[in-house]
Design a protein that fits this description.
Elements lengths: L13 H6 L1 E6 L5 E6 L2 H4 L20 E2 L5 E2 L5 E4 L6 E4 L42 E5 L16 E3 L2 E8 L3 E6 L13 H18 L7 E8 L11 E7 L4 H17 L3 H12 L3 E4 L3 E4 L8 E7 L12 H20 L13 E6 L14 E6 L1 E3 L2 E2 L4 H6 L8 H11 L9
Antiparallel strand pairs: 1-2, 2-7, 3-4, 5-6, 5-9, 7-10, 8-9, 10-12, 11-12, 11-16, 13-14, 14-15, 15-17, 16-17, 18-19
Helix pairs in contact: 3-6
Family: Belongs to the galactose-1-phosphate uridylyltransferase type 1 family.
Organism: Bifidobacterium choerinum
InterPro entries: GalP_UDPtransf1, GalP_Utransf_C, GalP_Utransf_N, HIT-like_sf
Length: 422
């Protein structure tokens, strides 16, 4: 039985065709929304999700009235180029108004990422249904968005060509991993994380086909200390209209390595870590996780597919997607046990999980390789690594530990071979 909707660029594997149903709809203000269901009764079509958004939201690009009652056109976000570095800097003033439900600066009591609750006074949530498995939708307060009728043209700030300015014509999406707003990603079953992996692959394929998109970046910010504004198991996907500075630097080095040696730098780094062995912290049939020999963060793990030729998440086969879900689950669980507060219970680790994929159009993409870079700035159970003068001012990193000590701690938390776990 095939229940998956058909899309122009995303091609589901056998598992997704049989066990995941994608249902698309549109929110009241015109934003795209997708349910990814993995429960059999929804996959079969026996039950369906609510598709209409009952909120009286105006079209997101419609003019609005200011404090004086004057009609103001929608202001497309812009980005300006730093002449010293070449970096594009999106300027997202609309994000100042987004709801915050975590931390001392909380501005909203309800959770817009939660399923709709009948009778709940907070009814401005983003999910139309009263339950879901995984959902994806365009961010209501995006730092980048393609605005109809706004040409993607480069101009000057103050009429001076030193400062280039363009519309920040990208796309920002939110992915909710589970309806339990008090849950942790580390506690999700591997089967649910398998649906999350499918969501990453689905959106990578579709977003890469949008005109003007140069890089697709799925990532997860977790923990109040990281700056997360909504306490809910979720991540984001940015589709940049440029190549982000970190990836640009990596592409410069991977391309130079290819021209010098004919090899793939990311493959050779992975192979060298496997040969060295002592910094490898996990391995299954399809993936290997290791602490890189030049790790910056006090907790840092890179995860790479063993198969060569995998540039992006949508190129993973079914086995690789299952093995990734298992490895990601194990990594999150061990990360939560990494720092011991003396009670043996570990802690809810603040972390960033960043997917580095090959760029969409750049010719250097063929010499790149998919990888996940997972890190935390916590350096002890009661200490945080602050990015002070050297790191923030000069991007000259100073590590508070060694990669070997990080790996040794992971080895205390469980076996390297996890192929038969989970």
């Amino acid at each position: 039985m095939t229940t998956m909707s058909r899309y122009a660029h995303y091609e589901p594997g056998d598992y997704a065709k049989e066990h995941i149903r994608i249902t698309a709809t549109t929110l009241a203000d015109g934003r795209d929304f997708f349910y990814l269901d993995d429960e059999p009764e929804f996959v079969s079509g026996e039950r369906t999700r609510r598709l209409d958004d009952p909120r009286p939201l105006p079209d997101r690009f419609a003019p609005h009235l200011d404090a004086d009652g004057v009609e103001v056109r929608y202001q497309a976000p812009q980005m300006r180029r730093d002449p010293l570095t070449g970096d594009w800097i999106p300027m997202a003033t609309a994000r100042m108004n987004r709801p915050i439900t975590a931390g001392a600066g909380a501005t909203a009591k309800g959770n817009p990422l939660a399923a709709r609750k009948p009778g709940d006074p907070y009814q401005d949530g983003e999910v139309p249904d009263t339950d879901y498995d995984v959902v994806i939708f365009e961010n209501r307060f995006p730092s980048m968005v393609q605005v109809p009728g706004v040409p993607d043209e480069t101009g000057d700030v103050d009429g001076n060509p030193l400062w280039q300015v363009r519309p920040a014509a990208g796309r920002c999406e939110v992915i909710c991993f589970d309806p339990n707003e008090d849950g942790l990603p580390a506690d999700l079953p591997v089967s649910r994380l398998r649906t999350v992996v499918e969501a990453w692959a689905f959106r990578t394929a579709e977003l890469s086909a949008i005109d003007g998109i140069e890089q697709v970046f799925p990532f997860e910010n977790h923990g109040e200390e990281i700056g997360v504004s909504l306490a809910h198991p979720h991540g984001q996907i940015y589709a940049y209209p440029f190549i982000a500075p970190k990836l640009e630097t990596e592409l410069e080095h991977t391309e130079a390595y290819f021209e010098r040696t004919g090899g793939n730098l990311l493959h050779d780094l992975m192979a060298a870590e496997i040969d060295a062995r002592h910094r490898v912290v996990m391995r299954n049939h399809s993936w290997v996780a290791y602490v890189p020999a030049a790790a910056r963060w006090p907790l840092e793990v890179h995860v790479a597919p063993l198969r060569d030729g995998v540039l992006t998440l949508d190129q993973l086969d079914d086995q690789e997607r299952w093995d990734l879900a298992q490895m990601y689950s194990t990594l999150l669980k061990r990360g939560n046990r990494f720092f011991d507060r003396g009670d043996g219970n570990g802690m809810d680790l603040p972390y960033i999980a960043a997917w580095h994929q090959a760029p969409v159009h750049d010719k250097r993409r063929e010499h790149y390789r998919l990888n996940l870079q997972f890190f935390s700035f916590r350096r002890a159970a009661n200490k945080i690594k602050y990015l002070a003068g050297s790191e923030s001012g000069m991007a000259a990193w100073i590590s508070d530990t060694t990669p070997e000590l990080i790996a040794a701690r992971f080895h205390e938390l469980g076996p390297v071979d996890i192929a038969d776990e989970g």
